[in-house]
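User: I'll paste a sequence; please echo it back and then give the predicted structure.

Assistant: Echoing your sequence first, then the prediction.
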Amino acid sequence: MSGEFATYLSGRYVELNIYSFSFREYLDYYEITSDFKSHFYRYLEDGGMPSTFDYSGDDKRLILMDLYNSIVLKDIIQRNNVKNVDLLERIMRFVMYNISQPFSANKIHKRLKQDMVNLSVNTIYNYLKFFENACLIYQVKREDLQGKRILKYDEKYYLCDLGFRQAIIGNNQRDITRVIENIVYLELLRRGYEITIGKVDSLEVDFVCKKQNKLIYIQVSYLLASEETVEREFKPLKSIQDNYPKYVITMDDVDMSHDGIIHLNLIDFLRDNEVI
């Protein structure tokens, strides 16, 4: 159900967040016990909507499109009485193209102005909130780790399921670094973490994860293919002046842990709920 229903049940409900299938659940469904890497690449295109699992090719895409259109039509357009459906869809496509990238409603506004589209920043904020209320996207705020305050600009957005992105715009494999970050974000939500993006001076930590008294920092990348990449991914974590656990998660099979920062293989992380 859309997130807004909780407001009608104030004080009379327990909220349970239900997500699409994780990679571990995906493996269990298909009874996969080997060759996890090749199945992971399939999963990052298929997504985790179980109603699509018994289909392939155009049939799978059709079901994903029907699911997406149902959410947009019933949970967003009808409920919020949206008049400009074309602009709503354009904003959603912008979010899909820019998952895991910091941006703001102002940036969307500037892009639309280039296309000669006249739409207020407040309307864009409202449309983004409609998508959030329909549980289609998640907004993650940025946190200044030195000043210990939430920043009010350049949030990141993540999709509830990457199968929608593949069905609508494709290119999940091409945009694999950002897609992997989306997958890790959803997995951390499933494990009960509250998540922000960390800022340390000019550096950024992908995820600052809190759960009760537990705090961890996580960087996500596709491969640590060069010394420059290793330095880029480890440097933000090295700059944090505390002793809470710090992780870098990638697809690499070689362990590159150093300076107290733990390097994890992505598939091992996704398969084992006890890793983090």
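The chain has one domain: 3-271. Residues 86 and 92 are 10 Å apart (CA to CA).
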